[in-house]
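Q: I'm writing up a methods section and want to include an example of the input and output format. Could you take the sequence below and give the corresponding predicted structure tokens, formatted cleanly so I can copy it straight into the document?
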Amino acid sequence: MWFSFAVVLLAVVLDFHFSEMRRHHPLVYFGAIATEIEKSFNSTKNFLKAWPISNAAGKKLAGVLAWVLAVLPITYLSFLLEQYIQVSGFYNELSALLYGAFILYIAIGWRSLNSHAKAIIRPLKAGNLTAARSALAMIVSRDCDALEQSQIANAATESVLENGADAIFAAIFWFLVLGVPGIVLYRLANTLDAMWGYKNQRYLHFGWAAARIDDLLNYFPARLTALSYALLGNSRSALQCWKLQGLNWKSPNAGPVMAAGAGAINVRLGGGSHYQGKWQERPLLGPESGNLPSAVAIDAACSLVDRVLGLWLLLLLLVALCW
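A: Here is the clean output for your methods example:
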């Protein structure tokens, strides 16, 4: 466990000092590869014509095969490299530590999440809604052009709470479970969900596998994150909101995370919004007596994520000391 603690700590330190890679990020190249794979598989002319099955079933099958082709070879290569480091003549703990920490550093986005949040908080406090909307559009998929102050804060707070689970804690969880291949598997699957997991005409069936696999991989990390939010915030309110509201959300994992987070920082979130020009009604999250979303709520969400990361590092250290 000392090794695992050291890997996670070093990855967090790297992320704190360097933030995410601005040039030549591996996920950018992976996204380009995934785009080409999607073009080849999500096409009646190129793929479905050869299959004597319904269009919906064929597109789901195409999505499964595309996911396998995009994710598994790279995951397997990360496993082979991990094994090579361990059995090669130059193997030592430092090589394995640096390899694991670098891959985890690529996968997490703690400082980036805080930076995006602060880029919204500053203009929101100054009353510059145009700049706040522009910054918000960098991290959410909803239409931001006409959002008012409380709506901007609502969306940003939700994003911080949800991405705390997706961008930080899930990657750490899968490293602890499966090592470097676990990090790679999770981050690539999560990226494909962000690219293909839309319920529109193009991706409704093709992206089914990407969305469901991401839901599966996030199931336990999301609930550990929700529990952590509850432990380090208003515990009673967080657990109650999780129980009563978490299952009402369209995402089985974002619901518990955001409901618990909203209860933990005592803010009312949720409600409908426009996505790609279409109104989507969404349940309310958080206590009825909670505060309205504001720049203060965004900052509180960031602080909660920071405390949870500290808690996870402390628990890893305690386990290592007792191992």
